[in-house]
Specification:
Length: 130
Amino acid sequence: MSPSALEVNLPQSSQTTSLKPTSRIYIDSLQHMWYTTADSLKESEPQPLPADKLDAFLTQVKTESDPAHQFVAVHADQAVPYGKIVEVLDAGSRVGLKVVLATKPTQASIDRQAAQEEAQQPAPVQGLPQ
């Protein structure tokens, strides 16, 4: 998911994670960076993130987050050069922060998730009204 104000066309992946980031970096197709943070209620509006402020933002996330949320999700448009993404990964490594790459699910992974959820539903008890 991305804020409605940003257009980021994520690449697809069949891998998923249960991690729910509270901090996100968005890189649009023009290589402009934006960030958002979230509390338990909602995600903030996207704010510009100049390249020279990247380390400071990541350090802030590292120092102000509880250990379970000491990571950032990068939502990079599929047109963004790999080198730009590596810059963000390197910055995260410098400050000791985990960085995960956001992708959109493939249809096969959506179908697999739905089948798993359906299999976890309790079976109806015979003879009782539905």
